[in-house]
Sequence to fold (160 residues):
Amino acid sequence: MQVFGPLEHHDYRVLDAECICHVCVPWRERHRALQEQQLKTQDHDISCACEECRIKVQRRTAYLAAMNKRDLYCEASWHAQLLTRNNNVFTVTVSDPVSGFALVFMNWLGGELNTRNDSWWEIRGLLLPLSHWFNRFSHAAAASGHSLGIPQYSGNIVAS
Ligand SMILES: [Zn+2]
Ligand SMILES: [Zn+2]
Fold:
């Protein structure tokens, strides 16, 4: 088991089995907790409102939140590692990117994962495309000047 870095966090087959980062560990633990509770309540009716079933619903939300965060992080990592091979220039769907280092973006995104509650991540986290996060990052970077450590890039930015 090991921690896969932000720029190498996109191979689910490997991550599922080996990664113990701050994104994968909660995902794995919450999955186990949900399964445990599903077993406990497997012969309960779907409309059952007992305490165990209530816990099951809570654990499902917790798990789905962790899963959506992880999916976002993995998808972003895939694009981020591509950026590093292209001089850190955003080439994905960003209309007004602040170009910069992929790692800065990933670290910023890692922080964003901790800023909302599980219900938000269960529902909204699933619906927002990656471009939403790039745009948020752009705005955060623009608002903070150099404090995000993002260098200005003067070359062409290709939006696809
Ligand atoms: Zn991980
Ligand atoms: Zn029940």
Summary: The chain has a mean pLDDT of 82. Residues 93 and 146 are 23 Å apart (CA to CA).
